[in-house]
Design brief:
The chain is an alpha/beta fold. Helix content is 20%, strand content 17%. Helix 2 links the parallel strand 4 and strand 5. 29% of the residues are buried.
């Protein structure tokens, strides 16, 4: 069996990345032997379709189970179409989520828990924000 968990870096003790489609990499782990490989998530830099591309990568790696903090509707549909079982992962390291799975302490997803384009980073200092200020263009051309 292979379990996939989105990770911030290729290390079992790395924090699990809550963003599925835009994580840095995926830990692909055999929970019985703890044998692990890491897949770079090339979909993370995509302008759109990151969740679908990441789900396709995970399915092609032979995964049977995905543990993720957040799954959008398109990634979820793609993973389920491939027959994968999906569990919601709380915050923690990859190793901690694997242990929670082994202990039976995870909840299976019943539907997406974020909307499409969730991991794109709008606002919060990254990319284009939503313009919450009261200015009219930052003063350009005014004296």
């Amino acid at each position: 069996m292979k379990i996939v968990i989105p990770a911030e870096r290729p290390d079992l003790d790395a924090p699990a990345d809550p963003r599925f489609g835009r994580c840095a990499c995926f830990a692909v782990v055999d929970p019985d032997t703890m044998e692990c490989e890491f897949l770079e998530n090339r979909a993370a830099a995509e302008v759109s379709g990151a969740g679908i591309a990441a789900a396709t990568l995970v399915a092609s790696a032979g995964a049977e189970v995905v543990i993720a903090g957040s799954l959008g509707p398109k990634a979820m549909d793609t993973l389920r179409a491939q027959g994968l079982t999906l569990y919601q992962g709380p915050a923690g390291t990859v190793r901690e989520l694997l242990q929670a799975y082994r202990d039976g302490g995870l909840t299976e997803y019943t539907g997406p828990n974020v909307g499409a384009h969730h991991g794109m980073g709008g606002g919060g200092g990254r990319g284009m924000g939503r313009g919450r200020g009261r200015g009219m263009g930052g003063g350009r051309g005014r004296r």
